Amino acid sequence: MTRRRIETLKVLVDGSIVSTHAIHPYVISEFDLVHEARRVPQLPRRYLLQVLHATRALDSYLSAFNNLHGLAPHARALGQYLTALANHTHAALSHLSELDRLRFQRTIANIRNRFMHEAGAFPVREAEVENLLAEMDALLSLVVTL
Amino acid sequence: MRDSPKLLQIWERLRSECTLAVEPDHPYLLTPPNALISKNGRLTAIFLISHDKLEYIEQLLVRLAISKLALPRHMHCVLITMLDSERAQNVWDIVRPHFHRIENYEDLAKSRSSLATTLLADWAVSSSNQDSQNYLAKMSHCAFARSHILLDEMLKQEERYTRRSPLYALKQLERSGNYKRVTERSWLDNGDHRAGILRHEQGFGVDAIQFRKDGGIAQLRSHCASAVRWEYMLDNGVPYQNSGAGLVQGIIVNRFPTFKGDPWKPARAAAFMGCALFMAKPHDELAQTLVHVNSQAQRPENSRRRR
Fold it and tell me: For residue B119, what are the contacts with CB-CB under 8 A and spacing of at least 6?
């Protein structure tokens, strides 16, 4: 993730409702850690760290966002956050479309779960990590507009 | 323009007062605002203009329209002019209804009060604006959903590079008889000087780009801007869809441009502006793909939840 992308995501988070939540400074620092991970010399570990910190930033953001809107208070997984955003009854909040929910489940949750939970699973190519992180950025950029 | 000491001074002051992203890298925006600033839940997009020709003003308005769709609805839009007072007035006359606030960069640089407080001030949304905010939410929702459909369609293409000429492929399509060349729609100058693009009898457009080795994004940006002008019109800062819009503009290319750190950003951001890139291939295959993608792109309307 480039420095400009990190700065953009930080502005979006700081300009959203999540700026009032106690998790806010930790989300911001996770973005910095994604960028700092580029200095790790061993490529597989670098890629995994980038995915890990981006995951913590995204999931914490979504948890706080849902929490502040009273959605799915017990949710602890990306799939549950997405389902809550697609099916809620909050009058002032738009819905994540079903197509988008399914798409992000496929492009983020299904791919990163393997890296996060399966022994020996690492992203192999840089483009693979870049595409995964870009999808996570895209999801966050969409959720701030709901 | 971006190296102006006064402008750098403004950025430095803002950086110390709030969160700032200069030339933001947004996943869905090929033409973002010049800067984004935020603090405590407030968000402002800053646009700069340093020319008063209609062409530049129109580019500014296209950037504003697409930024409104991709960024949060509570965001305010501020225009900072880098012009003398007479030329600034020309711009002001045209763009005033679309921005929350217009500032001169010299006045801002001289100001002793907090720039973040000035630029992040709370402009209350009147009840008459609530309808347009709801409309904007609907348009934004459709633009995101359509961009994902188009991106998935583009990812299905096996070839990423071809020696075939996009311009030749476009000519072949034109000869097939289902397309005619129409003048491109312009917001400010009636588009008389523009070359125009091919439009299918069903309404969707087709264009071609032969990407240079060193280029890509800039060429793509100007083609996608024409799709935005075709699809939307800007009224009081809200992009309203024209009748018969929602159709995809196909762009025949010789390769897919990439972007550092986000390889698919050009394709995703083009899709957000209503464009889909296709490798140059025989015209009958291309014609089929264009019709198929346009039918797929109508799906966001159907998938929207109604309550």
Answer: B14, B37, B44, B46, B78, B101, B103
- Rounded Cα gap, residues B74 and B131, in angstroms: 14
Chain B nearest-CA residue for A128: B263
CA distance B49 to chain A (A): 21
Best of B18, B19, B272 to disrupt the A interface (most A CBs within 10 Å) is: B19
pLDDT in tens, A80-117: 999 999 999 998 899 999 989 999 999 999 999 999 88
Residues 6+ apart with CB under 8 A from A11: B19, B20, B21, B24, B36, B37, B38, B43
Residues of chain B whose beta carbon is less than 8 angstroms from a beta carbon of chain A are: 18-28, 36-43, 70-73, 75, 137, 140-141, 144-145, 148-149, 152, 260-265, 268, 299-300, 303-305, 307
Chain B environment of A137 (Cβ under 8 Å): 27, 262
Q: What is the ipTM of this complex?
A: 0.94
| Per-residue pLDDT tens digits for A42-93 | 999 999 999 999 999 999 999 999 999 999 778 789 999 999 999 999 988 9
Please list, in sequence order, all residues whose beta carbon lies within 8 angstroms of the beta carbon of residue A65, skipping any fewer than 6 positions away.
A16, A17, A18, A143
Contacts of A119 (CB under 8 A, 6+ apart): none
